[in-house]
């Protein structure tokens, strides 16, 4: 099993852009990883906040129980407003609980990490007569129609950390995309502006608060078109 995992990094690093990202970023990143006590086998959670334009990387040693904040990156472009993605072409960035399902070392946007949008909650929202859209990525460059762009330099770091986590055995790296930091104050403020999102955002807030409290990725299931956080 470990050998199969180690092959993931070996396969990725054969690609020129990944090899370059490692040569430019990994030595410095590894020093911070070691200083943070994460060791050389770690797991990763990505939390993104649309209003704040922040993408957080949380890490934990594979023998540890809780995550701690490792790095925060700024989005470098935006599209749409707060509120979930509903259909193809609406320009919206999704909101919800996802995971990395693609490592693309030959992206049109330097390097990219694909997110498993649409999930069953997204399909339920879109309905039968419309397409939900697809191809949602965290990527380089600085343009977007619904994705999360970080610049080439920043995506190199995030991508390398993702490869390391995947290589250490993490099959699914969570990507939690929130409309904003889901404090009670923010909920009150933004629900007043977007009342139609109240119930959906409350389901997201349950995940946000669980992570804030426990510093572990909550168990989230998709039940009849809704998120259920345990």
Can you characterise this structure?
It comes from Pedobacter jeongneungensis. By secondary structure, this protein is α+β, with helices and mostly antiparallel strands. The chain contains 6 helices and 10 strands; from the N terminus they run H-H-E-E-E-E-E-H-E-E-H-E-H-H-E-E. The strands form 2 sheets. An 8-stranded mixed beta sheet has the order 3-2-1-8-4-5-6-7, with helices on both faces. A two-stranded antiparallel sheet has the order 9-10. A hairpin with a 4-residue loop joins strand 1 and strand 2. The protein is globular, with a radius of gyration of 17 Å. The chain starts with a helix and ends with a strand. The model has no long low-confidence stretch (mean pLDDT 96).
Measured as a percent range, the helix fraction is: 25-40%
Amino-to-carboxy terminus distance: 29 Å
Which blocks of ≥5 consecutive residues have pLDDT under 50? none
* DSSP strand tally: 10
Determine the number of helices (DSSP H or I, runs of at least 4 residues): 6
Q: Secondary-structure element sequence?
A: HHEEEEEHEEHEHHEE
Rg, alpha carbons = 17 Å
Strand order of the largest sheet: 3-2-1-8-4-5-6-7
Structural class: alpha+beta
Q: Note the overall shape.
A: globular
Mean pLDDT: 96
**β-sheet strand percentage:** 25-35%
Biggest sheet features: 8 strands, mixed
């Amino acid at each position: 099993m470990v050998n199969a995992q180690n092959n993931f990094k070996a396969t990725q690093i054969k690609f020129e852009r990944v090899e370059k990202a490692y040569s430019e970023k990994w030595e410095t990143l590894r020093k911070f990883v070691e200083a943070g006590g994460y060791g050389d086998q770690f797991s990763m959670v990505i939390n993104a906040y649309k209003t704040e334009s922040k993408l957080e990387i949380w890490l934990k040693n594979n023998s540890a129980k809780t995550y701690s904040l490792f790095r925060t990156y700024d989005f470098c472009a935006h599209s749409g407003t707060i509120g979930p993605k509903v259909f193809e072409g609406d320009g919206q960035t999704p909101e919800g609980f996802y995971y990395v399902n693609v490592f693309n070392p030959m992206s049109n946007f330097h390097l990219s990490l694909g997110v498993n949008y649409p999930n069953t909650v997204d399909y339920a929202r879109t309905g039968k007569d419309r397409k939900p859209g697809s191809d949602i990525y965290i990527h380089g460059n600085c343009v977007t129609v619904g994705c999360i762009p970080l610049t080439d330099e920043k995506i190199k770091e995030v991508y390398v950390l993702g490869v390391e986590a995947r290589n250490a055995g993490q099959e699914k790296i969570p990507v939690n995309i929130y409309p904003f930091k889901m404090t009670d104050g923010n909920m009150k403020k933004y629900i007043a502006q977007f009342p139609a999102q109240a119930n959906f955002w409350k389901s997201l807030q349950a995940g946000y608060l669980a992570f804030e409290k426990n510093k572990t990725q909550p168990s989230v299931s998709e039940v009849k078109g809704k998120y259920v956080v345990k």
